[in-house]
Design a protein that fits this description.
The chain has 451 residues and is α/β, with parallel strands linked by helices. It is 25% helix and 26% strand. It has a 9-stranded mixed beta sheet. The chain has a 7-stranded mixed beta sheet with strand order 15-16-14-13-17-20-21. Helix 3 links the parallel strand 5 and strand 6.
Length: 451
């Protein structure tokens, strides 16, 4: 091996470095995650002079003014970002292949290039491919500049010379630095590239969006430290075969991480879904047993979803359980509560629970909706089409309070629902709302009496 080079082993999950290969990472305890990479040994930097002045300030001297945010013009994206883009921030956007990451960021460039200088750097597509996608979206301003390059040194020079206000990197796994002796997409290259972009964003006050590939487990490919380095992590979720997409904030140093944005994929790009409740309930069956409308909260936004359940006698010795769109173990737990507390004989029945529309919800407030859907299907009794339910179910069969009941009831009334089944303890928190009847239930026995 050439002088100055050495072989080290990096954990692909957390970025831990070891001098030899290990079966289990001692840092994150994951198995078979170490990969071999060649690293150029550099000389140690000169020691920092002891006479160097260090700027130390007290906490009271630091300004606490809110950052001036840049409104993108896409309300769903601004909501997830916490009100807009913060200048000098580094944003990571991850998602499955073909989910719409590049399309969304090109639409961001289309909106912001009308007033600001924007640079779109692609390491995966040619200029003609980007132009073909842009033609479907409409007109673009001359302030949008394109660059197809993967050399990190060249990209850094261009950004320092042009000083654009917004930069899009598509994607981080294609960037490479000649100083790192490993292939593009490796742990060392991804970490070095992200570090360079972080220095450019903070030093020049440039907002940089980074596109990241995801693994089969759904996490961003590369070291876990990548998500710790950036300011904001956004995940694009949804089925490639469905028309809707959900943008979810996993990490945000400048806002809440509970907000979501809902988009619909169309021929001309991603369109905002301003009323996702109405969108999720479209096509709901009439007079069908096992169909219940529940309300879930994502951040500050109430969303109405349809929960479907199908319960039938099994033809095998072991009944089958299936859950789509919610936690499988949670469904089994709720079925055990039904069998123990109200004597519903489900041990010899197959049960299939589905959240219509392909969306995934894990909030405990949908427990009561799952319970009532299972009871409705088991007894083959359809529920009132104008009824909505929400509440958390405990192991004793009690229906517990959930957060923000007032907003949930108001959302149901806005969409024309006439009856709301909610926890009895939440009735005190909900103010008198005209036009909708509220039924408080203390346990699942009261809920079954409603059916």
């Amino acid at each position: 091996m050439a002088k100055g080079k050495k072989i080290v082993y990096f954990c692909q999950n957390c970025g831990n470095e070891e001098s030899k290969w290990l079966g289990q990472c001692p840092s994150c305890k994951e198995w078979n995650t170490f990969v071999e990479e060649k690293v150029i040994a550099t000389s140690k930097a000169a020691a920092v002079s002891a006479n160097r002045e260090v700027n130390i300030v007290s906490l009271s001297e630091v300004s606490a003014d809110d950052q001036v945010r840049i409104q993108v013009g896409i309300k769903e994206l601004d909501r997830v970002l916490g009100g807009g883009i913060v200048p000098g921030s580094l944003v990571l956007v991850g998602g499955d292949p073909g989910i719409g990451k590049s399309t969304l960021l090109l639409q961001v460039c289309q909106r912001l290039s009308k007033e600001r200088s924007v640079l779109y750097i692609s390491g995966e597509e040619s200029l003609s491919q980007i132009k073909l996608r842009a033609n479907r979206m409409g007109e673009f301003c001359e302030n949008l500049k394109l660059l197809c390059e993967t050399n990190l040194d060249t990209i850094r020079t261009v950004i320092e010379n042009k000083k654009p206000e917004l930069v899009v990197i598509d994607s981080i796994q294609t960037m490479y630095s000649e100083e790192v002796a490993s292939a593009p997409g490796s742990v060392s290259q991804v970490r070095e590239s992200t570090n360079v972009f972080m220095q450019l964003a903070k030093g020049l006050g440039i907002t940089i969006f980074i596109v990241g590939h995801v693994t089969k487990e759904g996490t961003v490919a590369g070291p876990r430290v990548l998500e710790h380095m950036v300011d904001t992590v956004l995940y694009f979720e949804g089925d490639r075969h469905a028309s809707y997409r959900i943008l979810r904030g996993v990490k945000n140093r400048f806002g809440s991480t509970n907000e979501i944005g809902v988009f619909e994929m169309r021929q001309d790009g991603l369109a905002e879904v301003e009323n996702p409740s109405e969108y999720m309930l479209s096509g709901k069956p009439e007079n069908a047993s096992g169909s219940v409308v529940a309300c879930s909260i994502e951040g500050t936004r109430p969303m109405l979803i349809e929960i479907q359940a199908l319960v039938c006698e099994t033809n095998f010795g072991m009944p089958r359980r299936t859950a789509t769109g919610t936690d499988y173990n949670r469904v089994n737990l709720l079925m055990a509560v039904l069998e123990k507390r109200i004597g519903l004989h489900l041990s010899n029945c197959d049960a299939y629970v589905n959240i219509a529309g392909g969306i995934r919800m894990n909030e405990p407030a949908i427990d009561l909706g799952i319970v009532m859907a299972i009871i409705s299907s088991y007894k083959n009794r359809p529920l009132d089409e104008k009824m909505i339910v929400f509440g958390e179910v405990g192991l004793s069969g009690e229906v517990r309070a959930v957060s923000m009941p007032q907003q949930r009831v108001q959302e149901a009334k806005k969409l024309g629902f006439e009856t709301c089944v909610l926890p009895a303890v939440s009735l005190e928190q909900v103010k008198e709302i005209q036009g909708i009847k509220m039924i408080g239930v203390k346990n699942i026995s009261d809920a079954m009496n409603v059916i």
